[in-house]
Amino acid sequence: MPELPEVEALAHHLREHAVYRPVARVDLASMSALKTFDPPVSALTGRVVTGASRFGKFLSVDFADRPDEPVHLVTHLSRAGWLRWHATAGATPPKPGRGPLQLRVHLDAVGGPGFDLTEAGTQKRLAVYLVTDPAQVPGIARLGPDALELTRAGLDELLDGDNRRLKTLLTDQRTLAGIGNAYSDEILHTARLSPYAVGARLDEAARDRLSAALHAVLTDAVERSVGQGAAELKGEKRSGLRVHARTGLPCPVCGDTVREVSFAERSFQYCPTCQTGGKPLADRRLSRLVR
């Protein structure tokens, strides 16, 4: 799933390549992806791209023909979605329901440059909204503070009284916006904290480590990602991970074997030596730290 660093990089890529270009046509290949109906996607035709921005893990592409009438194409890429930039594209409108293409935006001219929103797999969760204000998107309206802007004092406010496990707390977008499964694993590993540690019970030293790790991991990932082409971002993300998706491999810090806990449709990875005092976490649903 694209998280804060990748979405920030995609927004930067669009600002570099799409701004000041007019929309020639929009092809909607999946009606189920579009979550709004007014204004229609045809309203983008003739409008000019004026910017791109990020709200948590939401990407907003901004359009205007007059400054007082902005329109925003907002997307949440979910687990298997992506934005692909193209220099040229087919002029024939795509057939609905065929392949991964969900929406295509032609810029300058039909068949010219632009971008596609695609989604792999059979579970179609990518969402597209066309709104006059990004805050009209329910998911954006519910977002907590942005993870990159969270201060040490702000972290205390989030943790105090919250008895959820850190893994759950960090990935709840209503609590903290932008962090998903991969970067929460990386942040907790860097902070030397168990995924099952309870937020409200962390002492000052642990909170200091969590705050420092959160900013270091995300800032490093953004710096590595921004400037990369959209096609290279997934590989760049994988290359910077130390524990996530590295089950069975040695921890780059201590050499212990990276372990995995699976639950529902997801899993997370951690290092027992670095994070749980050498104790493995039980790999079953609703598991608790083995004491």
From TrEMBL:
Keyword DNA damage on entry:
yes
Gene3D superfamilies membership: 1.10.8.50, MutM-like, N-terminal
Q: Which InterPro entries match?
A: DNA_glyclase_Znf_dom_DNA_BS, FPG_cat, FPG_N, H2TH_FPG, Ribosomal_uS13-like_H2TH, Znf_DNA_glyclase/AP_lyase, Znf_FPG/IleRS
Reactions listed under catalytic activity: Hydrolysis of DNA containing ring-opened 7-methylguanine residues, releasing 2,6-diamino-4-hydroxy-5-(N-methyl)formamidopyrimidine; 2'-deoxyribonucleotide-(2'-deoxyribose 5'-phosphate)-2'-deoxyribonucleotide-DNA = a 3'-end 2'-deoxyribonucleotide-(2,3-dehydro-2,3-deoxyribose 5'-phosphate)-DNA + a 5'-end 5'-phospho-2'-deoxyribonucleoside-DNA + H(+)
Under the heading Pfam families, the entry gives: Fapy_DNA_glyco, H2TH, zf-FPG_IleRS
Q: Where is the Formamidopyrimidine-DNA glycosylase catalytic domain?
A: 2-167
Q: Which SUPFAM superfamilies match?
A: Glucocorticoid receptor-like (DNA-binding domain), N-terminal domain of MutM-like DNA repair proteins, S13-like H2TH domain
The FPG-type domain extends over 242-276
Which UniProt keywords are listed? Answer: DNA damage, DNA repair, DNA-binding, Glycosidase, Hydrolase, Lyase, Metal-binding, Multifunctional enzyme, Zinc, Zinc-finger
Which cofactors does the annotated protein need, by name? Zn(2+)
Q: Which domain of life is it from?
A: Bacteria
Q: Which family does it belong to?
A: Belongs to the FPG family.
Identification of the protein by name:
Fpg/Nei family DNA glycosylase
